[in-house]
């Protein structure tokens, strides 16, 4: 069965915004606070959004990793994200973490994330301190993605792979860890109901970035991990 793709996510109906959930407290949004939560709550913790790959069985599992780069800035941690180029066959124009499919030469899922980050945006390993791996997130195309959370220390210079990456930008972690900015969408695609999260963010210059799908879901899982011992149940 063909996977029902969402091609115009910005137009999908918003069925809820999580204003009722608390933002992550500031003490947990520091590098030390994030590290403490990761250390004490993994590996027993289970993600709120494990992905929807299980809805479409019979597809080959494809191991992959993404780097979740938490950049240390003077005003707190920021999340480094990329916008994929518009000509790509898969996920064209979407907001994503640096990352990709695991190569046979990669020693581990961490090695995959670090290699992909260097290839896509030129982020060198000496600037990256790996903190922890979150549980797998399985995409609808059956990529089994390991999110690798890491602290990134400036100064560093990014060099983008112009074929894959149109631009790189940073979003304050405090914005993404506030559920008042988390929108829930639901729509029918080829007769099948699909659900996803979005976290639209407007930069100071007025430019809006529509963060959605797997990227938003993995950020939401990070929120649930940092916010509470017992994260809220998925809808």
Explain what you see.
This protein has 4 helices and 13 strands. With 235 residues, it is of the alpha+beta class. The strands form 3 sheets. Strands 2, 3, 4, 5, 6, 7, 8 and 9 form an 8-stranded mixed beta sheet that branches. The chain has a 3-stranded antiparallel beta sheet with strand order 1-10-11. It is globular. The chain starts with 13 loop residues before the first strand and ends in an 8-residue tail after the last helix. The model is unreliable at 231-235 (pLDDT under 50).
Largest sheet, in brief, is: 8 strands, mixed
Mean pLDDT comes to: 91
Strand content: 25-35%
Helical stretch count? 4
Q: Which percent bin holds the helix content?
A: 10-25%
- Silhouette: globular
CATH H level: which superfamily? Nucleoside Triphosphate Pyrophosphohydrolase
The unreliable regions are 231-235
Order of helices and strands: EHEEEEHEEEEHEEEEH
Structural class: alpha+beta
Q: What's the CATH topology name?
A: Nucleoside Triphosphate Pyrophosphohydrolase
Write down the CATH class: Alpha Beta
CATH architecture level-2 label = Alpha-Beta Complex
Rounded Rg: 17 Å
Number of domains: 1
List how many beta strands DSSP finds. 13
Termini separation: 25 Å
List the helices and strands and how they pair.
Elements: E1 14-17, H1 31-41, E2 62-73, E3 76-84, E4 95-96, E5 99-101, H2 109-121, E6 128-133, E7 137-138, E8 143-152, E9 165-172, H3 173-176, E10 183-189, E11 192-198, E12 201-202, E13 208-209, H4 213-227
Parallel strand pairs: 2-8
Antiparallel strand pairs: 1-10, 2-3, 2-5, 3-4, 3-9, 6-8, 7-8, 10-11, 12-13
């Amino acid at each position: 069965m063909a996977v029902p793709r969402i091609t115009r996510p910005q137009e999908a109906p918003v069925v809820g915004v999580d204003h009722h959930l608390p933002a992550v407290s500031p003490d947990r949004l520091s590098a030390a606070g994030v590290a403490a939560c990761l250390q004490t709550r993994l590996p027993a913790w289970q993600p709120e959004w494990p992905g929807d790959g299980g809805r479409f069985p019979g597809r080959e599992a494809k191991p992959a990793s993404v780097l979740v780069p938490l950049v240390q800035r003077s005003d707190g941690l920021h999340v480094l994200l990329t916008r994929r180029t518009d000509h790509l066959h898969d996920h064209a124009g979407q907001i994503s973490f640096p990352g990709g499919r695991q190569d046979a030469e990669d020693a581990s899922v961490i090695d995959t994330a670090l290699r992909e980050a260097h290839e896509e945006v030129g982020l060198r390993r000496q600037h990256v301190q790996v903190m922890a791996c979150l549980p797998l997130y399985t995409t609808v195309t059956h990529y089994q993605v390991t999110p690798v959370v890491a602290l990134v220390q400036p100064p560093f210079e990014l060099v983008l792979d112009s074929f894959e990456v149109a631009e790189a930008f940073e979003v304050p972690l405090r914005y993404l860890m506030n559920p008042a900015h988390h929108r829930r969408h639901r729509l029918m695609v080829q007769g099948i109901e699909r659900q996803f999260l979005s976290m639209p963010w407007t930069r100071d210059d007025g430019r809006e970035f529509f963060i959605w799908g797997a990227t938003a879901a993995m950020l939401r899982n990070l929120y649930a991990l940092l916010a509470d011992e017992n994260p809220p149940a998925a809808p």
